[in-house]
Each structure stands twice: as structure tokens, then as C-alpha cells.
Design goal:
The chain is an all-alpha fold. The protein has helices at 2-29, 36-54, 64-78, 80-93, 97-124. The radius of gyration is 17 Å and the shape is globular.
Length: 125
């Protein structure tokens, strides 16, 4: 367990750093008030997470440790949106459509409410 913890931590370190670089780089060249950096990071993270997790699990392309480093670690640090979409895809592939709809809608709605509650709490300090 500790080995996996370190592997995910290393991937997260580099994913988070890349998120900062890509996000800030895109915002520096953006001419519209749209969060292009975050948008690009989220979409790229989903593409990368989908590609890596879609590779055969037999270790022919990547070992399970490398998959963990790149998906949970790098992509998780790069964007948690990729993990959110990956988990949603698992529900969809498993034909758990009721759970999928609940997960998507509850995550977005409750996530937004939690963000607003956090902002409200910060104003109270």
C-alpha cells in the first residue's frame, strides 16, 4: 500500500505541475474571458486517462504500476475531472445508468452547493 501511495504521489506532483503550466500558458494567450486553460486541462486529462485506462490490463503495454502512476497519479493531479469521467464511464460500461445519472447530477449539483457554502463560510471569517 505504501508503494502505491508513493507512486500516486509522484504522478500527482508532476500532474499538478503540468496543470499549472498548461493552465497559465493558455490564460496568458486567451483573448476571451473563458477559462481556456482549465478547459484544455480537463479535456486533455480525459483523453489521456481514457487512452491509458483503455489499454489492455494484461501488462502488454503498461504495467499495473505504470498505469497507476499515469491515471490516478498524473491524470488525478492534472485534473480530477478525468477521474470523475473515468468513473462515470465505468458505470456506463456496466449498464448502471441509474447510478450514472445520479453520480453525474449529484456530483455537479452538490459540488456547486459545496463550493458556494465554502465561499459563504470564508466570508464569515
Amino acid at each position: 500500500m505504501f508503494k502505491e501511495f508513493i507512486i500516486v504521489g509522484i504522478g500527482s506532483f508532476f500532474g499538478g505541475g503540468m496543470r499549472l503550466l498548461v493552465s497559465r500558458g493558455m490564460q496568458a494567450i486567451a483573448i476571451l474571458p473563458f477559462p481556456f486553460g482549465t478547459f484544455l486541462v480537463n479535456i486533455t486529462g480525459c483523453l489521456l486517462f481514457g487512452f491509458i485506462s483503455g489499454l489492455p490490463s494484461n501488462g502488454a503495454y503498461l504495467s499495473p504500476t505504470t498505469k497507476l502512476l499515469l491515471t490516478t497519479g498524473f491524470c488525478g493531479g492534472f485534473t480530477t475531472f478525468s477521474t470523475f469521467m473515468g468513473e462515470s464511464a465505468i458505470l456506463m460500461r456496466g449498464n448502471s445508468f441509474t447510478h450514472l445519472v445520479f453520480y453525474l447530477s449529484a456530483s455537479l449539483a452538490i459540488g456547486m452547493l459545496a463550493m458556494l457554502a465554502g465561499h459563504w463560510a470564508a466570508k464569515m471569517v
